[in-house]
Structure formats: C-alpha cells, structure tokens
Amino acid sequence: MDNVLIRRVAPGEAWRGAIVLAGAPMGAGGRGGGGALIKLILSDMDNTLVPFGASAASRRTVDAIHACQEQGIDFGPASGRDRGELSSFFNKDASCYNTGVLVNGQKVYYLGEVVYEKTLPMDELRRAESIAARVEGCAFITYRDDNFGDWVGATREELGPMFERVFLCGGERHELDAMPDYPVVKAGMVVMGDNERAVELSRVLSDACPGLSFPNTVVNWLDASPKGWGKADGVAILQKILGLADEEVCVFGDADNDLDMLRRYPNSCAVANANEAATRAARWHVGASADDGVARAMEQITAAARESCELGREVEPAFMRA
C-alpha cells in the first residue's frame, strides 16, 4: 500500500482526491490489457449477492468471484455492512472482501486496508438515538471499528431472530444517554413489526436530523447515513485508485441504498427481486438473489473476458446482449 493515504474524514469534510496509488495509471482508459470490458465488480450483499436470511454466499458465488479475479477483474462488496461482518458470509475467505465499498460508501477498502473513512455527525446521531429509543420495538445501534454493536432501546428478547443478524460481532445494551463515546462510522436501527413502522420512523428521523438519511434497506431495518453521501461516492474513490473509466465498473443492487450507484454507472444491474426504484434505475437486469443471479452474471463476465483475450477486442457479457 505504498503511497496510499489512509485518513479519517470528519463530518462535512469533502474528500479531496488525496488517495494516490503508486504505479496505478489514473487516466480514463483504466489499467488496460486483456481487452475485458469490465474490470471492477461491486455488489450489494443482502438480497443481492446473498438471499435475505442466508448465512453465507453460495459456493457458486464464491467460485464466480475467484474466476473473475483469475481474469484480472477485481471484486468487492458494496454494502451497508462493514468488513468484520462480511467474513462469515464468505467463510473468512478475505479475497472476497479485501477490496470493497462498505458502510454505504463511508468506508472504502483496497487490498485489506482502509483508504477512506467518513464519520457521522455526533450531535445528530444522539438526537436520532433519543427519538428511536423511545419507539416500541426499536433498537438504535452504533458500531465500533471491530463491528461490536452498542445499542439502546428494545431488549435482546424483543429483537428475537433479528439480534443475530445485526450483532454478528456481538453487542451490549445501554441505558439512554449512557452510550459509549467514540467516532461512529456505522449506525442503524431495528424496527420490529410491520415494515411500515420503519418507513414512518425514517420520515420522523429525517425531519429531526437533516444531516442524516435513514434508508429502509431491508425489512425491519434503517441505515443511518450522512445526507448526500452514498455508495456511489465510495465507488468513485475506489474507481480512482484503480484508474478505471465508468464503463469498466459493474455494480449490482436491489434497494434504495443502491440507487445512487445504479444511476451513476452505465453498467448497473438490478437483481430480479429488486424493488421498483432499483429496477428502474438499473440499465441491466439479472436473475434473483435466491437463484444466484449475480453469480450467473459474473460467470458471463468471466466468459466475456476470456473471449476478449482470445479475439483481441472487447466482448460484452451475455446478459448485456440479451
């Protein structure tokens, strides 16, 4: 990681293009070589790469990731989760998550190193925490760097099966106004019951905390993210590190927190189970998460890369020719 600047960015501070990777060309033509159309694949996790409720990526998915990497195509998650949470999804195979855009673009990893990090504004975070903690069946969570979660609100028993999904690295409940004080990059909340309760709480919190947004990314869950910052911003940072043109980046998603990257990149893909907004935003459409839709698409990207090398020209993956 020579000449890579690793830094924490405070709330409201813009990234100024300070990341420079030695030896990586920064021109629009990307790294060149091989003739492959796609050189970087980034996929959302829950309900996209991994079906909701599944504990791990399928063998087919992991094999497809490795096949892409063997063709010189980088892969990484583009997820609301952080790196510590991802290891169990890939059976601790770090090659699947060493590079990625995590915490909805607030953390960018390259080869296992944090190259960008954006913290949340603490005053608004505490305001959101105070509101959410008083909502029945709601747990407001902040995560430490090791993904251990601190929360206020609903008890572990009240959270039921959701507890295991949101506290993959453990957690501790606190009384309101007694949460530990540390810089927070990742936060969110469980809202039990009908998902309309989560949608309504998102509206309330958005009005009370104008510097934050609260997308309902999966059922019974709200992310807490910096207003105006999303996955697309993190993808752009990683893209710059790798020196890639927009069309050399392929992104997969299914939900509202994927919309900015689906709209930003010309080779954007929605899985068949995506919500209406994500389906409209994406240029390409692939199979459902439960049917290994992303893995199948990656297999086609790999096949196109091999054919590109043989023919000496760019070949589009089959799903882009359908």
TrEMBL record:
GO molecular function: magnesium ion binding; phosphatase activity
A Pfam short name: Hydrolase_3
GO cellular component: cytosol
The protein's name: HAD family phosphatase
Species of provenance: Parafannyhessea umbonata
